[in-house]
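Prompt: For my understanding, could you write out one protein's sequence and backbone structure tokens?
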Amino acid sequence: MPANFDREVHCLLGLPFDAVSMAGAAKSIRAAAENRIPCFLSTPNLNFLVAAQSDIAFRNSVINSDLSIADGMPLIWIARLLGVPIRERVAGSALFETLRSGSVRQITIYFFGGPNGVAENACRRLNAEAGGLRCVGFDSPGFGSVDEMSSEAVLQRINDSNPEFLVVSLGARKGQAWIERNRSRISAPVISHLGAVVNFVAGTVKRAPVWMQKVGLEWLWRIKEDPVLWRRYLFDGLALLRLLATRVVPYAWFKLFHKPEVRELEFAAITLFDEGARISIRLRGAWDNANIAPLRECFASPVLAGKDIRIELQDVTYIDSAFIGLMLLLYGDRGRQERQLSIANAKPEVRRIFRYGCAEYLLERK
């Protein structure tokens, strides 16, 4: 499906995040399930963000998602520091519980992954209660490769159960890779890697108290529940410090002294050149979340369908996280259509914003 360029997406350290509340995310999932609209939900947290700095396929899996929610308080803190309007943590496990407590219409789900016996137990416990979710199947495929878990027999079992929501639990990188590999062959409209959710539902792992979740100390609780995790949290914490020192704090400082003037925002304009197999789009002026609507309409135009796109930025004086977020959507859309996107001739100050946002990979190399 073509990208939904109407999504309010912002770029944080190289990944797209939807500016959505818990209620808004739950509404989107319910609508997708009921109307059978394909929705790949990604729940990037700090671990996702750190891994995406070096793993291109993993990063692209988040870019290719239809809804990307900020699952981690460090992400919310960074957004606040940078003035990005992502104000609420929407944890994947909390979103699942919100859907679980619903009473309007049951959503059928299928658990795929988790330790042996856990998915079965989660399915049984979920169906023993009256709530917003009903389990119609489960599978614990073990610890094989993505290829081994992608056989016709495995996918047929899922499709025969006809779930509306497929909950994957294979480990973040493998889970995202498995979804990317198989989403076109799975009939479930909603699909997401929700990590520890199957363990929470089965009762083998307890969630942190709400107060720890709100103050960003859930990681301490997770280490208590699973001590092996301390290495991952240590590595991610050190990586976060590096990103804060080299990208986040310098960007916050940069923004204090570089704000677009009203005339620059009013001067923003789009010019298209149809060159046959390629469309060149020349932009000018300053672009931010307040004036980006015409650019959304431009990218959604049928004229652009199936063509390579070149974005010329030589006349652009300022961009923000919403502009880069929209570029991420276009980047993902071109990739799925097996077409090229090149973003060229950015001025040094604009190129610097891309770099602070860990999104310089979007720019054409000089």
